[in-house]
Amino acid sequence: MAKLTFKGGIHPYDGKDLSKDKPIKDVLPKGEMVYPLSQHIGAPAQALVAKGDRVLAGQKIAEAGGFVSAAVYATVSGTVKNIEPRRVASGDMVMSIIVDNDGLYEEIAFEGRDPEAISKEEIITVVKEAGIVGMGGAGFPTHVKLSPKEPEKIDYVIANCAECEPYLTSDYRRMMEEPEKVVGGLKIILKLFDKAQGVLAVEDNKPDCIEILKKLTANEPRISVKALKTKYPQGGERLLIYAVTGREINSKMLPADAGCVVNNVDTMVAVYRAVTEGRPLMERIVTMTGDAMKEPCNYRVRVGMSYEELLEVAGGFRVQPEKIICGGPMMGNALFDLKIPVTKTSTALLALSKDEVSAYEPGPCINCGRCMEVCPGRIIPSKVATCAEHFDEEGFLEYGGMECCECGCCSFVCPAKRPLTQQIKSMRKIQLAKRKK
Fold it and tell me: Is 86 helix (H, G, I), strand (E, B) or coil?
């Protein structure tokens, strides 16, 4: 039987062996905490606190700034030091709430609900109030995703368990150590969509996860576990939908237009905890890895903790890295400073002893077609990148530039070492900004 997958894609070295067998360790931050007001797609959150205010862990410190926005919560107790711009992983300066951690970790009282008795409206309210966003990296507010215009037309709720990005193992450890919460979150979301089937979509390089999840869902008629072919970028939303359902969507469509709702593993767990424990989104699993990392591991980290402090906990570097990336090597952001906070969408800190990419000397396109063969968006990256390079907006759109998912496959295989993804990404940003006007 053919394995569930998509057209195109690549098989890079995955580097997961460095950390996949390392159990999750809990970390308590000691330094100041930085809470950016934009940790999500949409309007920035609006601060509810002022300089000098004392806050408790679990206290809302910023409310959603609109429907497509998300609340922010303190993850430690302490005093608000300031509200000022701070740098985040993308390199941008973002207005942030700075809290002086008092080291007491005092929390507000949390109150959970019965997941069997909760209503659809209450689920949406709880998820919105908890400040939950897509934790696979996109940061789309989850309550918006769970509120399609026509919920009766949703046929599939897909748990994205692929974790196709090289080196990342946070979702894998979550599935291995807390599979009940993953399944519990999926069951809660399924309550919103009467006709939908739940699918736990896992790449087949995680047979142990597949076995565990199948055992847990053996008596769940609405939930199935599907093994996907291991290939990058299998976890991309559009590609995952195609692999699981055979339905195609483009850049102008939402998953709901194909009758699907897709959520990341960590997002599922956040939904489960928000409903059953009453806890807002305050923490996430971060993989500290790479051949330059002294002790690769997976840590449960409170949002707002700096990577600099987390690196100290992880034991520092084995050798001085030439490249440090927030996220994975394909879609992550290279860092020049570790004094940035862990946010809701952080997944990993990758330290590499060699920076191979910086040594590349781009040459002219030889029209080999390799970029087209691997492109999951089914465009011609070399052509689209040339349009972007020459600021040919009309050509960029004509040749399907907006269908690029910025996965990096084209740059990875290009024998001329052209920065195809980077050129396309820059033009896509310009076009997306114009659409918002």
Answer: strand
What is the torsion angle, in degrees rounded to the nearest 10, for the CA atoms of residue 114, residue 115, residue 118 and residue 123? 130
**Cα gap 402→396, rounded to integer Å:** 8
- Is the pLDDT confidence value at 1 over 50? no
Dihedral (C-alpha) 155, 201, 334, 34: value to the nearest 10 degrees? 70
- Report whether 213 contacts 187 (CB < 8 A): no
3-state DSSP call for residue 416? coil
Closest among 416, 382, 423 to 399, alpha carbons compared = 382
The tokens describing 403, both together, are 């269908």
Tell me if 256 sits within 8 A of 277, measured CB to CB: no
**pLDDT tens figures, 212-229:** 999 999 999 999 999 999
Which position has the token pair 């939402």? 254
24, 177 in Cβ contact below 8 A? yes
| Statement: residue 355 has pLDDT above 50 | yes
Going from the C-alpha of 362 to that of each of 13, 114, 163, 420, 423, the distances in angstroms are 22, 58, 30, 10, 13
